[in-house]
Design a protein that fits this description.
Elements: E1 7-9, E2 15-17, E3 25-31, H1 40-51, E4 56-62, H2 74-85, H3 104-112, E5 128-131, E6 137-141, H4 151-157
Parallel strand pairs: 3-4
Antiparallel strand pairs: 1-2, 3-5, 5-6
């Protein structure tokens, strides 16, 4: 399986093939609006504005599996991201990122880039995966890693 074989639903319910992002560097993040890391939306938006023209896409995937920190509906999530952080990068429908019901994208990402000690599960909101222009998962970053800390790695992939 390749990342480009997968699909995800946008916040408006449109099915989006990840093939759409072929040839782009991807930063894929599981997000939440009521988390201590939520202010990272601002950092993600800053990185997006800085690198979008050079081929970076950030894909946000809200998830309510960690402390019920994403309780909102899809329209509420869209409004929250826009009003509070001016998010212009794609944000998708709320998904599960761990367990039996995990979205196929996150099953793929965690298999390709296991966490500490080889664990395949995501431990918290704002875990970040960096994917190169060919669709290869390059790295996984812990929730505490600020988006700005990924700038050097992103630059190399662009």
């Amino acid at each position: 399986m390749r990342i480009y074989d997968l699909k995800a639903d946008s916040l408006t319910g449109e099915s989006v093939s990840l093939e759409k992002y072929k040839g782009k560097v991807l930063l894929i993040v599981n997000t939440a609006s009521k988390c201590g890391f939520t202010p990272q939306y601002r950092g993600l938006q800053d990185i997006y504005v800085t690198y979008k023209e050079r081929g970076l896409e950030i894909l946000g995937f809200p998830c309510n599996q960690f402390g019920a920190q994403e309780p909102g509906s899809d329209p509420e999530i869209a409004e929250f991201c826009n009003i509070n952080y001016g998010v212009t990068f794609p944000v998708f429908k709320k998904v599960a990122v761990k367990g039996h019901d995990a979205h196929p994208l996150f099953k793929f990402l965690t298999a390709e880039a296991p966490g500490v000690l080889g664990t395949k599960t995501i431990k918290w909101n704002f875990t970040k995966f960096l994917v190169d222009r060919e669709g290869k998962v390059i790295s996984r970053h812990a929730p505490a890693a600020k988006p700005s800390e990924l700038a050097e790695e992103i630059e190399k992939l662009l």
